[in-house]
Task: structure prediction
Amino acid sequence: MLERQFTEKVLSPADLKPSQPGLKVIGVFNPGVVRLKQTTYIIARVVEQPTETREDCFPSPRMIDGELTLDWLGCEETDAASDPRTYTSRIDGSLRLRFISHLRVFTSKDGIHIDNPDDAQQIMPRGEYETYGIEDPRITVINGTAYITYVVVSGHGVATALLSTTDFQSFHRHGIIFCPDNKDVVLFPEKILGDFVALHRPMPSMKFSPPRVWLARSPDLYHWGAHLELLDASGADVTGGGQHRDRIGGGTPPLRTDRGWLTIYHGSDKKPGQAGAGRYTAGALLLDLENPSRVISRTPEPIMVPTEPYEREGFVNNIVFPTAVVEDGDQYLVYGGAADENLTVVGYEKQALLATLP
Result:
């Protein structure tokens, strides 16, 4: 496993106030991060849970026209034991979330210590496709504009939408760019052979295959096509070998290096029939600079596994989930989520990380 130069917990739920009465913050994690001049911008997912409880039913929040509503799900009709994140209807198998997420925009001078977290701007769910919340932003700067992909959740499914900004104060919503069910979308920082390029992760419901990483191209960031599967879970990969893998997905927006596009991705080693989410680890990937559908190299074993106490225990145990890389001298700063609860940054020596890619 790749040696860490340092690991820091940047934010935890105790650092933040809830967005409104009746909610409590239970997680801040999976950030999009970019450094511009002397400021590091961190857009993080903030997860909140209702504080009200009832004996005979469970609360599931949703946002309607900017107003929070709690739907009370009957205990007899609802399975609340299978997953700490969701409720499952015993009637039709449909899911509802136990929480609702929004985004907050933080700044930092050194990439570790947050400037005035109470002053962070909030980006709240809006419209019919975001009623169950917005999650997991990734930031890519293209020609001076920061584009933020983020997950939208509603009764229509789990899709990916796009925001953009030039100043991290005002944000333009572009709408859905990948329809349900699709997430873990990351954009390349420049056009390649005239097209925008993205990695994405469809989630097939018919179970012919586990979720895998795909590549797509677009002339305008709205219309995506030329889809092809880039990465599956076969062979030695982030889950450490073996044939039983639950899923893999894109993590950090690709970063140009002399050897190719560097991206760090996640994988779960959950076995068939195993309860919970499984252990999430991370591996690295190099893609050809001119033809990113060609994989140059892939780490044969995980470069990051849950080791810190706050990575091993949290809202969902044993998760490291990288979502951003920032270059800092001879180091890569890898930002992400820990145990679906905390926001962390891990420092790796650049040459050591690249050396894990044969």
